[in-house]
Hints:
Layout lengths: L3 H21 L4 H8 L3 H13 L13 H13 L2 E5 L7 H19 L5 E4 L3 H7 L11 E4 L11 H15 L2 E3 L10 H7 L3 H11 L3 E5 L10 H4 L5 H9 L2 E5 L2 E4 L18 H5 L3 E6 L5 H9 L5 E5 H9 L6
Parallel strand pairs: 1-9, 2-3, 2-5, 3-4, 5-8, 8-9
Antiparallel strand pairs: 6-7
Amino acid sequence: MPHPDECLDERSESALQAAQMYYLQDLTMEAIASELHTSRSSVSRLLGHARSSGLVDIQIRSPLGRASQLEEELRSKFGLTAHIVPVPDNTSSIDRLERVAMSAARILNRFFDSNMTLGVAWGSTMSAVSHQLIPKETHNSRIVQLNGAGNNQTTGILYASEILRHFGEAFSAQVQQFPVPAFFDDPRTKEALWRERSTKRVLDIQARMDVVFFGLGSPFAEVPSHVYIGGYLEAEDYRSLTEARVVGDVATVFYRVDGSFRDIALNSRATGPDLDTLRRVPRRVCVASGRAKLPSLRGAIAAGLITDLIVDEGLARRLAETGSVRP
């Protein structure tokens, strides 16, 4: 029997040949099947393999479409580039997230390449995206974890590292984990550890990120944000966040709807990047789904955290209906 690697190479070669015939030569599946001496269903599977393996990158441009008009409205009102995912209003919250995650995984390939550093936050949205990534070979690239994942119930290493592993494998990139708690018990402990050379090395990598990729933590979300259900917050923390009028977080750093964050007490114990650090990253890609994320999204925009927004159509419409929150 052929070696498994040889079978994989043969399949990829056939998939590439079928894709060239279908997308570049406009041949029908029946015609391709005839030329390749195979069945129409086999051609369909080859084309599917070409898309899922990254041999084919499909982009759709519709300047006259409803989504494009909405994207232009969001650009004009909020100063960001929106990528709107059409999703029927009656779609379940889980399916909505999966469809947005699938689009986000494909769009990310345009933003990340060789000799770049990508910062990734853990959470429900990033977990969904990580399972949909399309392989793209890069060189001298790095994936860095944005915030710690441990709490008093778990180290969080398995959860966060699984997300990072998917990103690293998809882009053939080095992975840098951040093995610290999500929140310290005492701000002074954080201050001391932040002076350690091993921690400063990770912080220095974060300071040189080219792209940051994140979802929005939200106490209002239909798909619960991991930070709010994973044992990271105590009852007193919830009271503190409520009193501070917090609407969401990015990488466990909390903010209000007006984008303010500096005087929120819990942030002094959080291990995610200061929002000033995030704002210095050239490209900041936010993935959001579900209308309940609107307050969190408005706050993130007001804080100046987003350059690119990948969002479902329903949430995009709700955002467009609101007043400007550009910082």
